[in-house]
Amino acid sequence: MAKKKVLAKKSSKPAPKQSPQPQQEEEQQLVAKAKDSAIGVIEPRRIVEEMQESYLDYAMSVIVSRALPDVRDGLKPVHRRVLYAMWSLGLRSGAKFRKSATVVGEVLGKYHPHSDTAVYDTLVRLAQDFSLRYPLVNGQGNFGSIDGDTAAAMRYTESKLQRIADEILFDIEKETVPFVPNYDGAHKEPTVFPAKLPNLLLNGSTGIAVGMATNIPPHNLNEVVDGTIHLIDHPTATVEDLMEFVKGPDFPTGGAIFDRKEIAQAYGTGKGSIVTRGKAEIVEKKDGQFQIIISEIPYMVNKSRLIEKMADLVREKRLEGIRDIRDGSDRNGIHVVIDLKKDSYPKKVLNRLYQTTQLQETFHVNMLALVDGIQPRILNLKMILEEYIKHREDVVRKRTAYDLGVAKERAHILEGLKKALDNIDAVIKLIKASKDKEVAKVALMKRFKFSERQTIAILEMRLQQLANLERKKIEDELKEKKILIKELETLLASRKMILNVIKDELKELKEKHGDERRTEVFVNPIGKFTQEDLIPNEPCVIITTRDGYIKRMPEDTFKSQGRGGKGVIGLTTKEEDQVDHMFAANTHADLLFFTTRGRVFQLKAYDVPLAGRQAKGQALVNFLQLTGEEKVTVILSLEEMEQAKDIQFFVMVTSKGTIKRVKLEDFKNVRRSGLIAIKLKDGDYLKWVKPSGGKDHILLAATNGQSIRFPEGQIRVMGRSAAGVRGIRLKDSASVAGMAIIAGGKTEQGEQLLVIMDNGYGKRTPLAQYRVQGRGGSGIKAANVSTKTGSITSAFTVNAKRAGEDIIVISDKGQVIRMPLKSVSVLGRATQGVRIMRFSEAKDSVSSVTFVEAVVSESSAS
Asked: How do residues 739-771 score in pLDDT, each as one tens digit?
C-alpha cells in the first residue's frame, strides 16, 4: 500500500515543461535567421494550402497562357508569338521565304522560351491547308500530310506569312493593341492582334486546359462576314437569324454535315454534336462492276489510318462485299478507290463503311474562349461575333486616334513651314546672324512664336523647298491634313461611322479572300443506322407453306419458261406439307400477316429469312405469336398501298363467303401480339384481304365455278371487331376460291379475270362478261369445272398494265413454273381453260399463284 501511495503522490505533481521538438526548433532557427538576413521572412505554411494555391496558379497559367484562344483574334499565345515574330522579321506575304529555323529561333529567343519542337509544330500546323480552313503561314517544302506524315526538319523548310495573316496583324504598329514585356523584359509583345477578320470562327481552335477544353469548328469566310455585317446592322438579331448567313461549320477537308437542329443547338448554346461524313460516290465501270470513290474525308481524320481500318474490317469479315482498296491520292486531292465484288450491294457497303469507320464522325462542338484575355467562357455564335465587333470598335477607335495625332503633328509642322516661307527673308537673315544652330532655334522661337518641333523642321528645311512649286506642295498638303483631321475627329465622335468602317473593311476582305463553301450542309438528321440501311431494298419472292414455314428468295431465282412446261423445284417441303402462299415484294416493305382466326400481325420483309431454292425455310411461329391451329392466310405489302394514294380500305372475305370493309388507318399501329381484324363464326376462317379505294367493284369466285360481281358501296364500313355481311351464297360444300378488286368499278377494254384450277388448267376471260349483281346472290359461271380441270384454286383480275408481267405458279409438292401472263389463253366464262402446268408427281395440284415483272429473255431453268 505504501508503494502505491508514493506513486500516486508523484503523479499528482504538475508535469514538467516539455522542450521544443527538433523540427520546431529548426523552423524557429530558420525564421530567426531570415529576420537577420536580406531575403525576407520565411513563414511556415500548411502543405495543403500551398498545393491548392500553387495548383490554381498553374491551372490559370495553362488556361490563359497556353490552351485557350482569345475570342478577339482566335489565337493562343504561341500562335500569336510565331506570327508576330514573322511580322517583325519582315516575312510578310510579299516578302521572300526564309528558313523556318530562323522563325523558330526568333520566337524562342524573344517571346516563347520553350521547346523548339513545340514552336515548329505550331508553325507547321499554321501552314497546313488540311488543318486550317484559311492557313496563316505560307510554307515551302514538306509541311506534313493528311496521312499523318511529319514535316521535314525546320532547317529544310521555308516560310512567310499568308496574305490573310497580314490582315490579322495589320495596324498593329498604330498603338491599336496593348503590348506587355516579354519573359525577360528585353522586348515587348502584343497581348492580342488587331484582327480585321473574326479568326476564331474562320479557323476554329482545339485545346485542352485544366478542367476545361475547347473545340471550335472552322467556318466559311463569306458566311461569317455576312453574319457579322448583319449583326452590326441588327444588334438584336438572334442566333437563328445569324444562321441564315452562317449555315454551319466549313471544314478544310470538305465532306458533309447533317441536321440543322444540332447545328442550331451548337450555335445557340456553345455546345453540341454535329455528324460529319466524307464524300463518297458509287461509280459503275464499263464492265458493269461498281466502285466506291472517296474524294473527301471528315475533318481531323488520318487518311492512312482510315484505309488501314477498312482493310482490317475486310480481313475480319466484318465488312463484306469489298474486293480491293487502293489509295490514288495526290497533290490534287484525295482519291481512294474501293472495288466491290460482283454480288455486293454498293449502297449497303457504303452504309457499312459509314457505320464502322471514321468515314462518318461526330464533331463535338465546345465554343470555349477567353473573353477580355483572362476570363474563359462558353460562347454562342452571337456572343463570339459581338465580342469581335467590340474588339474591332476599340481597334478602329485607337487607330483613328493614332492617325489623328500623326495628322495633327504633321499639320503643325506644315503650318510652321508655311509661316517660315511667308517670312523667308527675315528667317534666313536671322539664321545667318546666329552663332550656331541652338542660337538660331531660340531666336526663331522668340521672334516668330514657332514651337520647338516647327523650329527644328524649319532648320532642317532644304533650299529646294524655297521654289514656288515646293511651296505649293506644302500648302496643298496642309490643306489635305486639315480635311483629314476634320474627318478623323468626326469619325471618333460617331460610333455609327466606326461601325460603317468595320463593315466596309469586312466587305473588302470578303472580296479579296472569300471563297466557296467546301462542306455540304444537309438540313435533315442522318439518324442512327438501322437494319434497313444495311440490307438492300430489292425485289424478292416470299413463300409460306400450309404447315407454317416461310422463306424469302431473290425474285430472279425463277427464270421464265414456256406455257405447259414442268418448271423447277421451288422448295423442299416436309412430308405431307404443301405450299400455301407466294407473293412478290421488296425487302424493305412492311408486311401484314392476316391469319385464319381473323388476327393481323406486322413484320418487315427482310425479317423473313433468306433461303435457297430448295430450302424449306423457318417456322412462322418464330416470328409471329400464333396460337395452336392458327395459320397465316394473307400477306400484304404496305409499301404498295402507300404508293397508291387512292387506297382507303381493306376488304376481307372469309371461306364461307362473308365480306367486310375496314378503314386502312385502323391497321397503322399493329402490336407485336397482333390485332383483331374480323370476328369469325365457328367453322369459318379469314382467307382474303385486299385494299380498295371505296368506289371499286368486288368479284368473288367459288370453288364450284360460280362467281359474283357487286359494287363495294354495298358493304358498309365496319370496325375491326365486326363480323361482316354475306358476299356470295354458296351451295353444298363449296367455298370461296378467289377474290378480285375491279378498280373504280369500270371494266376497261383489256381487263380480264384470270382463273387457275387445281389440275393445272387456267384461262383469261374479259371482265365485261361478268355483269354487276346484288351482293349476297349465287352469281354466274366463271368456269366450267370438271374432274379434268379440278376446282377453281385462284382468281385474279388482270389488265393491260400487267400484260408484260410473268406469273409464277407453285404446286402443293413444291413444283414451280414461271411463264408470261400473255401466254395464258383468253376464253369465255363457261369454258374449261387450257393446261398451263404439268405435274411431275401424281396427286399434285396447284397451290398458289403470284405475279412478278417479266424477264427480258426466255430461257429454260437449269
From this structure: 888 888 777 777 888 999 999 999 999 888 889
Given phi > 0 = left and psi -120 to 50 = alpha, else beta, which region is 749? Answer: beta
The listed range with the strongest mean pLDDT (158-172, 570-584, 644-658, 661-675) is 158-172
Q: Is-catalytic flag, 156?
A: yes
202 closest CA partner among 522, 521, 503, 510: 510
Least confident interval from 41-45, 126-130, 378-382: 41-45
Output the pLDDT for position 242.
95
Helix (H, G, I), strand (E, B) or coil at 457: helix
Grid coordinates belonging to 646:
387512292
The segment with the largest mean pLDDT, out of 340-354, 378-392, 672-686, is 378-392
pLDDT at residue 332, as a whole number: 86
Same domain, 499 and 543: no
**Alpha-carbon span 319 to 353, nearest angstrom:** 8
User: Secondary structure of 226-273 in the HEC alphabet?
Assistant: HHHHHHHHCCCCCHHHHCCCCCCCCCCCCCEEECHHHHHHHHHHCEEE
> Is residue 771 classed as helix, strand or coil in its secondary structure?
coil
H/E segment holding residue 447: helix 437-448
Last residue of a domain, one of 154, 176, 195: 195
For residue range 257-314, what is the model confidence (pLDDT) as tens digits? 998 999 999 999 999 999 999 999 988 887 878 899 999 999 999 999 999 999 999 9
pLDDT digits (tens, 9 = 90+) for 540-577: 888 887 777 888 888 776 655 555 555 555 555 444 45
Closest alpha carbon to 296 in 310, 279, 276, 309: 279
- Structural domain includes residue 23: no
Do 488 and 543 fall within a single domain?
no
Q: Do residue 507 and residue 545 come from a single domain? A: no
What domain count does the chain have? 4
Close Cβ partners of 674 (under 8 Å, ≥ 6 residues apart): 595, 599, 600, 601, 624, 625
Per-residue confidence (pLDDT) for residue 861, from 0 to 100: 35
Region of 559 on the Ramachandran plot (φ > 0 left; ψ -120 to 50 alpha; else beta): beta
Question: 506 and 577 share a domain?
Answer: no
Please give the share of the chain, as a percent, with pLDDT higher than 70. Answer: 88
pLDDT (0 to 100) of residue 859:
38
Asked if residue 493 and residue 423 are part of one domain, the reply reads yes
Q: Which of 55, 58, 156, 183 is catalytic?
A: 156
Q: State which residues form the domain around 556.
A: 537-853
**Residue entry with cell 424477264:** 855
Q: Do both 697 and 770 map to the same domain?
A: yes
Does an H or E element contain 472, and which? helix 468-492
Query: Do residues 623 and 748 both lie within one domain?
Result: yes
Q: To which residue does cell 506569312 refer? A: 161
Read off the C-alpha cell for 384.
463570339
Which among 195, 224, 245 is the end of a domain? 195
Residue 168 and residue 85 share a domain: yes
Question: Which domain CATH number covers 128?
Answer: 3.90.199.10
- Whether residue 21 lies inside any domain: the answer is no
CATH number of 301's domain = 3.30.1360.40
Global confidence as pTM: 0.65
CATH number at residue 487: 1.10.268.10
Q: At 792, list the grid cell.
A: 377453281
